[in-house]
Amino acid sequence: MYKHHCEIPRPMRTVILQETGETRVTNVPLALCNEIAEELYEYEQTMAELLNFKLLVEINGASTVYNLGSAKASLAKLDEVTEYGLNTNGVCAVLFQSDKPIRAWSEGVEINLPRKHNDVQYI
Question: pLDDT tens digits for 56-67?
């Protein structure tokens, strides 16, 4: 990954120093720096998958899918579609996080979805 300590970007240097307790990155072996960096990049990729929100809305048989970047944006879009709760007749919606349903509504009433106790939920 990194061939020299000088190639390590500032944010990664901060993480490496926090992980090792050292005061200078040059005091940390390059192999350990690379290992910490790889773990952090892998963790960030895993967490990025949790930011994939999809809102499936069906209004009187016509369905639409909205791909949004946060739960807050998804719920705001649902409010917009239902005209802020005034027009919920014939509206069914399901909010997905990483292709797993986490919330559902039918005619303005929230439906409780069964969940496993170990499911990660961002909301």
Answer: 999 888 889 998
